[in-house]
Every structure is written in C-alpha cells, then in structure tokens.
Specification:
Largest sheet: 7 strands, parallel
Shape: globular
Strand content: 15-25%
CATH superfamily: NAD(P)-binding Rossmann-like Domain
Number of helices: 9
Length: 250
C-alpha cells in the first residue's frame, strides 16, 4: 500500500520497529506505536512527532491477548499494521527446553497472533488494509544455532504466506518480511561475524518499498536469501546438517 495514513507498529521502541516508525513519520500520518521500554518508546515517539506525525504510544505486552485486542479494537481505521515485536534468547542459557520454547513462542508467535487477529477483523469491515508480519532469514529453516527462535520465525513466515492467499478476496494485503542481520537489541548481543550487516534506516526503506509494491515476501539482503532459499535447498541433507551444526549459537 502506498502512503498509508494510519499505521500501527509493535516493538517500536528499538531496532527495525523504531526504524520503520521514523521511516513512515510524516505530517499527515498517524502512528500507533507499542513497546515495553517506556523511556525508549517515548524517545522514538518524540522523534516521530518532530517529523510532523501524530503519535500515540502504548506500553503493552503483546503476549496479553485480551489487552491487545482491546487496544486495537478501540483504535480508528488502520491502513497498515506491522507485527514486529519479537525476542531471542540463546538456548544454552536455558536448560529447560519447554520453558524456553514457551517464552520465545509466546512473544514471537503469540504476539504476532494477538496483533494480526484483531487487525484483520477491523480491516474486513472496510475490505481494505495491509498487514506485515516480521519473520527472519532464520525462518527459512530450523537452525541448530537458534532452534527455538528459528522455529518461531518459520511459523510466522508460513502463517503469513497462508493468510495472504486466504484473505486476498477481502482486499487485505498480507506480507511477510524476512530480514537478515539488522542492528537491534538482538544483534547487539551477537558475538560472531554477521554477514551483510545492515543499519535500521536502510532496512526500513527496503521494507517500505516492498510493502508499497505489495510483495508477498520481502527478504533481504539478496545474498543471504539466495543462500537460504536456493543453495541450501539443493544441498544433500547430511552436508547441510554438518554445515549448520558449525554455526555459532545465536
């Protein structure tokens, strides 16, 4: 969708969410921004306001289904919703696999559901709107270096791809975004080389351009997309497993 006027972004207090808020901020734009860090979210809101946008920020936990539904239901019409909030923690520091899995999935999958579901209901009333789900390049395959994180992103990717076709006749555009390494709180913790590392503003422009063209899958940088989407799929599984086992833990 070109020139959306009313935009909601979760996880807007840092990283890609912050970069997207600043990318879309303009004099005729209303931004609904959510996050859990009050100080950081206020800073982002102030920067967007300085660019002329009307900003409403909300401290909210995306895992709280009832609160998320109430918040989104009470907003006016939304042109664009970006389900961006996410988290990543290394499994090596969490020895209870079940607890670790639930914690990651509650945010990365449940948080997406709690954003997308009420947004779709609002957009169905107008037969108009766009929803972007932030997955990851790690969502192309289950990764031993980040087994739970990558699986959560695989889920988000598949969910968005499926919903895109299902809601086509409702006039709702649904897009999946798979970024590579983009500066954020998550990448700040990585202690290993990150190929084709990208700053937030550049990533935000790529995402906006893809959304304006209604691309079903916005995956970047192209070099990593080629490797994961092409080369990896044609390698024999036993070779692929050996390569992936040697990747540093995320």
């Amino acid at each position: 969708m070109k020139n959306p006027k009313s935009i909601l972004i979760t996880g807007a207090s840092s990283g890609i969410g912050e970069a997207l808020a600043l990318e879309y901020a303009d004099t005729d734009v209303i931004l609904h921004l959510s996050g859990r860090n009050k100080e950081q979210l206020s800073k982002v809101s102030s920067l967007c306001t300085a660019k002329g946008a009307t900003v409403y920020d909300k401290i909210i936990d995306v895992t709280d289904e009832a609160e998320m539904h109430q918040w989104i239901d009470n907003l006016g019409p939304l042109d664009l919703v970006i389900a961006n909030a996410g988290m990543c923690k290394s499994l090596k520091y969490h020895y209870e696999l079940g607890r670790h899995t639930k914690e990651i999935f509650d945010v990365n999958v449940g948080g997406v559901f709690n954003t997308v579901h009420p947004a779709i209901e609002k957009m169905k009333e107008r037969n108009k709107g766009q929803i972007a789900l932030i997955s990851s390049m790690a969502g192309y395959r289950g990764m031993p270096s980040a087994p739970i994180y990558s699986t959560s992103k695989v889920t988000v990717k598949a969910y968005g791809e499926a919903l895109r076709g299902f809601y086509y006749n409702y006039g709702i555009e649904i897009n999946v975004i798979c970024p590579g390494f983009v500066r954020s709180r998550i990448t700040d913790k990585n202690k290993f080389p990150m190929p084709f590392f990208m700053e937030g503003p550049k990533a935000a422009k790529i995402i906006r351009n893809g959304l304006e063209k209604n691309k079903g899958l916005i995956a970047f940088p192209w070099q990593i997309r080629l490797a994961l989407g092409g080369v990896v799929r044609i390698l024999p599984e036993f070779i692929l497993e050996r390569i992936l086992r040697r990747l540093p833990n995320k």
